[in-house]
Amino acid sequence: MSRLPLHTAWGIHGLGVHLPERRVSNADIAEQYGVEPAWIERMTGITHRHYAEPDRTTSDLALAAAADALADAGIAARELDVILLATSTPDQLAVATACRVQHRLGADRAWATDIGGACAGFLHALKLARDVLTASYPQGRALVVGAETFSKFQNPRDRSTGVLFADGAGAVVLGPAAEGEGILGSVQGSDGALADIVGIRAGGSARPASTSTLAEGGHYLHMNGKAVAAYFHDAFPRIVQDATRACGLALEDIDLVVPHQANPRMLRTLGAGLGIPAERLVVTADTFGNTGAASIPMALHAARARGRLTARTTVLHAAVGAGMSWAGTVQRWL
What we know:
Low-confidence stretches: none
Number of strands: 13
Structural class: alpha/beta
Number of domains: 2
Radius of gyration: 19 Å
CATH topology of the largest domain: Peroxisomal Thiolase, Chain A, domain 1
CATH superfamily of the largest domain: Thiolase/Chalcone synthase
CATH architecture of the largest domain: 3-Layer(aba) Sandwich
Order of helices and strands: EEHHEHEHEHEHEEEHEHEHHHEE
Shape: globular
Strand content: 15-25%
Strand order of the largest sheet: 1-7-6-4-5
CATH class of the largest domain: Alpha Beta
Mean pLDDT: 95
């Protein structure tokens, strides 16, 4: 029995996004964190963000973004072979949120699973989708989603996380591309020695839910802001260098840098330090907040809507997430 030849070039054929309707300004949250609205904007660059309604789940947001991406790609859910959902805020433990999305989409022949990596999760999922398509589906299609509902895990007394993180979902459809187009290369890595500086401490097997974990707020997102910022400042330039080098490119060859949307003030400072002109750096966290794994596909969608992303645009992505984990990807837009 002859095998179909491997197809190794894959690119994004469709983009989708979902932003919850509830818009939350700095003035709406400043008092509970004991700060002034202007302090939040000065320290982060964020002016407002969006929160899901209490009855909306991560899978709800993911489903809406996925449907948008499928429509943009012009394909039906039943044509999907793979669904990967990157999230730090799943609907529940032990059940992949991607499976709920698969069922509700009607993508009945697609393999579906979740991907960790927090804010770097979307790039991890994008690389895995490309690798799975190459190995198993020569002319296949993959749906890659990043979705978060951080508002459900925010400590109402912890300003280090409360003023930064927000909710949203972004999705892409990955399919065959011509050689030299689509995803050109990826780099990634982890440093488990720093696994405790950001995350949700309780609710897993190490610290199952109990009255004490609830009382101490162990089920809220926590972050050592200084340690995370220091790691980001060190990792971001290295990711940019490694990703471009892996593709045989120089930074001058990159038309657009679309990073994980951490602190927008920090992104602009780092971009300027690397010599990335403001017009080549996409920052959307000013009005979206940090939406974790959803932030890169949401930023891609915004860049395209603003006319900054067109055919043959060479795009670099860089992301740092809990773990600590990091990833970089370069793609040439189809």
